[in-house]
Amino acid sequence: MHRFDVYAVASRDIVFESFDGEAVVLDLSNGKYFGFSDSGSAVWRALSSGVGTKALIGSAAGAAAIDAAALESFVAQLVELGLLAPSDATPQPLPDDFPAVLAAAKEPLNVSVHDDLADLIIVDPIHEVEEPLGWPAVKQAS
Amino acid sequence: MPRVTMATLPDYARYLFAAAQGAASLFPVKQTVRLPGLEMTAHLSPGPLADALGQAFIEAGDDRSDARQLRIFIGHPGIGDLPEPAHWGDGHFTEHGFARTLAEAGLRGHHFHDLDFWQFYDPDRLAGVQLMRSAEAFPPWEPGSPLRAFLHWEYAARGMRLAHAGTLGLDGKGVLLAGAGGAGKSGTVVAGLLHGLDSVGDDYVLIDLDGGVSARPLFSTLKQDPKGFARLGLKHRLGTDGPLNWQGKHTFHIEAIAPKPVPASLDIFALMVPHIGGGETSSIMPMSRRDAMIALAPSGIAQMPGERESGFRFFSDLTRLLPCYRLSLGPHPEEIAGTLAHFLARVA
């Protein structure tokens, strides 16, 4: 079982939009995009709204049930990616349509990372880390 | 040599605005470009940037009564008392932190550290300043779409957006072509232009979502790598006398290959993400808006300084307003153009 039940969006730099029920998240601080599968989008929407993981696991049965281990792994991935952070807040109620959305989902819990252009945003052009010199090492202008 | 930090950044911007205003009468060249809803007057020195300003734009010919007046000072030491551009200090630099610090002061800006190249914009005063070490000390991409950062900031302040996308159209109706470099976007635009379709530009076009999605032209520059240049027959048509640009690509202007004058606007009916298909013919298949958004937004946001969250919201709204398709490109330019013409005639 999870160490935490409730999570929140990790920072104000995490912004997201939904497209026909599928979520795209952008981390403004580093320019990385994240595309969620249909079931992942439903879970992201719930978790980012403060719904607890226990409520998600208990929300549906049969084919629509969320596997606890899969959810734990998914949440850990979202925390690792810097999208969610544990929260002390009181759990919010599950959206009414969550079981139906989950039942209609065709894809497993998944988030894909799109960082092809992230370097254009996150690169620190002024400093470069060089192991022998530590941080910061001032980049010499060419 | 002064050094700028996040703490002193807004003050440095204001200092440069004041210095440029103080030297306003001393800039040797004044050029005005007429763009949609905007008259941009640049004060600068003779040289490649002034030449680019005269060649790189598709000027608007519509009613100018509502055009806002934008003034940009493009300066360097030697013009009045303009200072040497400052270096960035020792503090950590990120584009996002830089933009956020300026935005909190009501300003916009960009810094290219290799050249100590600074751009600042005040959207309330419609005034911008670009400070360089010398008249030619600008990033190599600047002449292809000069002053695009200032246009991006000004149009974003009005709820519009420069999108990194190509366009093709027919009878005023068009599609937006989005995707990463190398996906075939620019080649598709050229293929369409060579075979009877219209375009309001490749690379950067002005998008407005007011009353539907429309795309308007800003820049006339088109680009092709030598392989595409030859494949599309441009080597024979345009010659290869000009130097390649900083990306090793041929650059030319839309008027050189467009069959008709560039339209003032295209009503956009679809968002397409091209890719090299590998088959003998082209095809157009529906794709998810999620995937289309991920194809459209990153380069448009990464290549424009600041306004990152507003860009994400804008491109999200744009994507939700349009059906989205994956365009698999065949090898023949005429067939690609025919496929798109058929699509436009059917859905638009």
Biggest beta sheet summary of chain A? 4 strands, antiparallel
Summed over residues and divided by their number, the pLDDT of chain A gives a mean of 81
Radius of gyration of chain A: 18 Å
At CATH level 2, the architecture of the largest domain in chain B is 3-Layer(aba) Sandwich
Q: Report the β-strand fraction of chain A as a percent range.
A: 25-35%
Number of strands of chain B: 18
Low-pLDDT residue spans of chain B: none
Uncertain stretches of 5 or more adjacent residues of chain A: 121-142
The helix-and-strand class of chain B reads: alpha/beta
Helix percentage of chain A:
25-40%
Judged by helices, strands and strand pairing, the structural class of chain A is alpha+beta
Write down the secondary-structure element order of chain A. Answer: EEEEHHHEHEHEE
Q: Would you state the CATH class of the largest domain in chain B?
A: Alpha Beta
Percent of residues in helices of chain B comes to 25-40%
Biggest protein-protein interface?
Answer: A-B, 32 and 30 residues
Task: Draw up the topology in text.
The complex is a heterodimer of chains A (142) and B (348).
Chain A: E1 7-9, E2 14-19, E3 22-27, E4 32-36, H1 38-48, H2 53-57, H3 68-80, E5 84-86, H4 98-104, E6 111-114, H5 118-122, E7 127-130, E8 134-138
Antiparallel strand pairs in A: 1-5, 2-3, 3-4, 4-6, 7-8
Chain B: E1 3-4, H1 9-22, E2 29-35, E3 38-44, H2 48-55, E4 68-75, E5 87-88, H3 95-104, E6 108-112, E7 117-122, E8 127-131, H4 148-157, E9 161-164, E10 166-170, E11 173-177, H5 185-194, E12 204-208, E13 214-216, E14 221-224, H6 226-231, H7 234-238, E15 250-253, E16 266-276, E17 283-286, H8 289-302, H9 308-321, E18 324-329, H10 333-347
Parallel strand pairs in B: 1-5, 3-4, 4-8, 11-16, 16-18
Antiparallel strand pairs in B: 2-3, 6-7, 7-8, 9-12, 10-11, 12-13, 13-16, 14-15, 17-18
